[in-house]
Structure formats: C-alpha cells, structure tokens
Design goal:
three-stranded antiparallel beta sheet, 29% helix, 12 strands, six-stranded mixed beta sheet, alpha/beta, globular
C-alpha cells in the first residue's frame, strides 16, 4: 500500500535525515516503526502523510502521491502527531467539526472506542483534559474515521499502564484487512503482541523491514541455561527467567517475536541482519512487499 523509492530528505542542505530509502508496506498489517531518538521516524511519517516533501525520490500510497495532497488521499489518511494541539472545543464539538472531513467516520464507533478508554463525558473541553486523556480521545477519533492509512507518532507517550493495555486492545479491535497502520515508538515494549511487521531505521536508512513471520523464519527468540558455541547467537541477556537469547533459526524452531530483544539484537549485529533480510541501502527490494 505504501511504496517508497529512492527517497532522500533533509532539513538542511547536504545533511539528509533519510537517504536513498526504498520501502514497501502492506495493507492488513500494523507496522511498528522503531529506531533511536532523532533517527527520522517522525520525518518518515510526515513524508508519507504529505506534510513534508521529498528532496529526491517518490512516495506512493495506493495510487496517490502524498505531496499532491489530493482530497481523496486526505480523507483516507489520519495522522496523529506526538505534539497535540490545544483546543477549547468539547469532545462532542470536536467530533462534529472534524468528522465531516472523513466520509467513513462512524459516530457509534467513536463512542465505543471512548468507552473502551473509559471516557464517558463528551461535554468535557479538550484543553481541560490531561495529555494522556486528550491522546486517547484523538486515537479513538482516528480509529472511528476508518481510514485506510493511519499514522501514529508515539501514541503511547503520556498513557499510564492500564491505558497502554486499552490502547493495544482498541487497535486490534479496529484493524481490518484494508488498513495500513504505522506506529512510531521508541518504547518497544508498548507494541508487544500488537504489531505484525517491524521496520527499524538507522543511519538515514532502513536497517530491518520484515513481517513477524519472516522474522521468525530466520530468527529464534527463547531462553537457555547456557550458550551453545555451535549455535549462531546474535544477542543474549540475563533475566529472571534465565538467559534470553536471539539466534539464527537454522533448525526452523517455532517462536514468537520479542520486540525488545529483536531491537537490541539488530543494533548489536547490523551487518548480519542486513544480510539475512536483504536490507542493504542500495537494494530496492525490501522483504516486506505490497
């Protein structure tokens, strides 16, 4: 659904934030966009949303070029910024004013999502709510718009532990086969059991882009009493459960992706992960196709 070819962008001349990026992201997936602070995650989301324009290369979302800002593209795209704007409108009025821009908006779904977040009173003014509660209102609104493309920048920042659990449940409840959801975060634990695909940025380009199935086909996550020197170990750390390990899955063992372990392993073995998943900077064919 999202296709990027040879994308380069920088805020200053000769200092790119993203350089020669090639990327495909499927619909029907929740993509976790990971990377260290300041690496370009928000910039990439804004480029996909058409809020920034590429210096070089092309971005396409379906048949649309985001930078052209066509109406048909805008009403099917929702972008939630980490920086929430102040509004003196009540939740009810905010919904009435903004929902007209989204033809697929469902008032009943908005009400249901608010209830999932334990928000009952829609007469409250947004500027009187806490940062976390305002964020939950906007997440609920965005999901009720039923856009095919949903871009969330650090959505769990400001949410307490129960709210993060609610967030994961609401996201899964709203997901459809026609949706493409990209969630940017540096809090990798918040995406546990939520995302279907992992995208990691590093040094102006893509370090890893693969679905959970593709990752587990090549990588094994588990625990061990000791390290076997014959195994192709990629990363290990001590834990209360024992030694947590990431190794090459040469024996095709079944496992589940551990986002935090994966993130640490990738940065500990960048070259090997690029080899395993074919994410060299000059390679257009990323593993996660449309």
């Amino acid at each position: 659904m999202v296709r990027i070819e040879d994308l380069t962008f920088g805020y200053k001349k000769n200092k790119p934030v993203l350089e020669n990026v090639n990327l495909n992201l499927r619909k029907g997936y929740i993509h976790g966009l990971l990377g260290k602070n300041g690496i370009g995650k928000t910039t990439l989301l804004k480029l996909i949303a058409g809020l920034l324009f590429p210096d070089k290369g092309e971005i396409k979302v379906g048949e649309f070029v985001p930078s052209q800002r066509k109406v048909a593209f805008l009403y099917d795209t929702f972008f939630l910024s980490e920086d929430l704007y102040e509004s003196r409108l009540t939740i009810e009025k905010f919904c009435k004013v903004n929902s007209v821009f989204y033809p697929n908006f469902s008032a009943s779904d908005f009400e249901d999502f608010l209830k999932d977040f334990e928000i009952e009173d829609t007469k409250q003014r947004l500027d009187k709510l806490s940062y976390g509660t305002r964020k939950k209102v906007l997440i609920a609104f965005g999901l009720a718009c039923h856009c095919k493309l949903m871009l969330l920048d650090e959505p769990t920042n400001g949410l307490d532990i129960p709210s993060k659990s609610q967030f994961r449940k609401v996201m899964l409840k709203a997901m459809t086969d026609e949706s493409c959801i990209i969630i940017s975060t540096h809090q990798v634990r918040d995406l546990h059991n939520l995302i279907d695909s992992v995208l990691i940025l590093d040094n102006t380009n893509v370090l890893l882009n693969a679905t959970n199935e593709e990752i587990c086909d090549k990588i094994y996550f588990g625990t061990a009493d000791k390290i076997n020197s014959e195994e192709k170990l990629l990363f290990s750390e001590d834990s209360l459960e024992g030694l947590r390990i990431v190794k090459e899955n040469t024996q095709k063992q079944e496992c589940s992706v551990d986002i935090e372990l994966l993130f640490n392993a990738v940065f500990a073995n960048k070259t090997r992960f690029r080899e395993l998943f074919g994410t060299n900077n000059d390679k257009k064919g990323q593993s996660n196709g449309i």
